[in-house]
Amino acid sequence: MKMSPKPNKVLQLLRLRQLHNGVFLKVNKPILNMLKLVQPFVTYGYPSLSTVRQLLYRRGCGKVNKQRIPLTDNDVIADSLGEKAGIKGMEDLVHEIYTVGPKFKEASNFLWPFKLNSPNGGFKCKRHGYCEMKGGDWGNREEEINELIARMNH
Predict the structure, then answer these.
(1) Strand partners, 21
(2) Distance separating alpha carbons of residues 105 and 111, to the nearest angstrom
(3) Are the C-beta atoms of residues 106 and 93 closer than 8 Å to each other?
(4) How many CA atoms does the CB half-sphere of 86 hold within 13 Å?
(5) Which has the closest alpha carbon to 42: 70, 10, 66?
(6) For 87-128, how does the pLDDT look when each residue is reduced to its tens digit (9 = 90+)?
(7) Pick from 125, 154, 120, 152: which is nearest to 137 by CA?
(8) Which residue, of 45, 55, 110, 126, has the fewest CB within 10 Å?
(9) 117: nearest Cα among 149, 144, 146, 70
């Protein structure tokens, strides 16, 4: 896709290099400014606990020796995050991501960006923002992100 260099760089920094990728981010001032720059290219919001759990169990992959390893058992998590972050298993990881705990950065960085499917039923209107009168798809969805993730995580 043709894009100016600045939004392109921001998407790389957010680890969003492919279509339908997803990552967990901590909401702070620099991240919000980055999201403002790439708003027409992404949609974002605040996932519920059940959404976080479903994503991690269904599509969770960890970064082990720079390789993408599916999170099939707790040993993969304990080996990578046990020492430095005190995260021993899948539920610890879910809790750390959902509550944005003190070791969120390590946990989020350990997780490979989620590769989601295109949403069941498709997008409404890709060229308009979610908050616009016409109602589109990009931008801040807040809690409505759960419904979109459920359609993409089938």
Answers:
(1) 115
(2) 10
(3) no
(4) 6
(5) 10
(6) 888 999 999 999 998 999 999 999 999 998 888 887 776 666
(7) 125
(8) 126
(9) 149
Distance CA 62, CA 93 (A): 11
- Measuring CA to CA, which residue among 145, 48, 140 is closest to residue 94? 48
pLDDT tens digits, one per residue of 5-61: 999 999 999 999 998 999 999 999 999 999 999 988 888 999 999 999 999 999 989
pTM to 2 decimal places:
0.86
How many Å apart are CA 51 and CA 26, to the nearest integer? Answer: 16
- Output Rg (C-alpha) for the chain, integer angstroms: 16
How far apart CA 131 and CA 133 sit, in angstroms, is 7
Round to whole Å and give the CA distance between 59 and 70: 8
- For 112, the 3-state DSSP assignment is coil
Question: What tokens does 111 get?
Answer: 């997780």
